[in-house]
Amino acid sequence: MKLTSKILCVALGSTVLAGPAIAQEYPERPIDMIVAYSAGGGTDVAARTLVPYIEEHLPGDATINVINRPGAGGEIGFTALANADPDGYTIGFVNLPNLLSIAIQRETDYELSSFQPVADIVYDPGGFGASADAGFDDLEGLVEYAENKSGPVTYGTTGIGSDDHLAALTFARQAGIEMRHIPFSGAADVRAALLGGQIDLASTNVSELIDYADSGDVVILGQMGEERWSEASDIPTFQEQGFDVVMGSDRGLAAPAGFPEDALATLQTAVEAAVADPEFQERAQEQRLPLSFMDAEAFGAKLDRMNENLQGIWEEQPWVEQ
Fold it and tell me: Which of 1, 25, 110, 196 is the one with CA 20 to 30 A from 72?
């Protein structure tokens, strides 16, 4: 609390002091931010890029500690967030559709109502990446490669039911080719497997491949947005190449259900200011993060809509064993 605020509170009397002073004390200690994927992946990069700016726009000398809890396609980290004490001092980066699809495809220790949305930060279109020496550089070339290969095309994702997985299933059905899924704990692991020749294809988000494409190590075969992302304007969409695949990953902030309202208001204000901060926007551009801010209410509505849509997809064609 600034000195002028203290003087004002004293002047107004002790009965007035009790309310505002409590609200302005938050946060009184470090906040933990759970990231449900491994260090170095797109989610982790987005979180660590944003954190200093949230700290800057929170009251006092706020500190946020990023804690990676990878595994099970994000379920380990999501469960830890859902089961955390809703005291205002544990938040987490959550990924869509993973947060929702995991709970649809199997029994989990959380459900959508276990979370309090805070803000959506990033919408990252999906993409297919192949090694530079794969011998093909577009989706038509991938289909030809698959048709001539003795076994199925192997592809890595961040887990069963992830946007990467659902996108690959959709593409394989449309292309009429055989593809074998190999899940990993995070995008960094998928990239390492691709560069190490352990898989034929990386199905991940474009932002997680773009630097490797720029260096010449990876070829991005297409991106899954309805339009080309401005930072990858030379890469055609799947729709432009004749495949109706539109898929991507939202990365936003959530907290355990029951998160204190005053803490939520303070945190949401800080997050919105952080995303709008010109310095952060410059850093985000350097990190190739496709920003798409939504406040808690709008993000919550999006979660509800997506959950309903995924339930419909699951009822029509379960994806768990594909």
Answer: 196
